[in-house]
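Journal club side-thread
Mid-discussion, someone asked how the predicted structure for our own chain would compare to the paper's figures. Pasting it here so we can look after the session.
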Amino acid sequence: MADTSTASGRYANGLETRRAVLGDAHVDRAQANQTAFDEPFQRLITESAWGTVWSGQEWSKRERSMVTIALLAALGHDDEVAMHIRATANTGATREDIREALMHVAIYAGVPAANHAFKIAKATYAEMDAANTAGEDNEEHPA
């Protein structure tokens, strides 16, 4: 029989970590779009990925971010690459860190995978820069 208090604690910890990495807006959207069909899956990833792996003490969130992006790029999970590139704003992984991770992808997983991931990273960083610039413009010229 599963220990629900441990699972519940792991869920709460995972939700906190997920919010710290991906941001409240992303998590709020995911929860708003959750249905009875995918609720068990959402619980699984919150407890295991976020409550166990991402909450571990051995690596920093920066290190986890670099490894995660490299793995996602190597496996061709393009939407997830973009999501985790956006999360670098919260994890402390720099553009230089991500460039180096993608260079490893080129050597160990293949140039086509890295080439595509570089395109995704460039586009995502451009979106982030545009959003930051728009935010700065709005601060200077409040409505």
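Post-session note: The chain has two domains: 1-58, 59-143.
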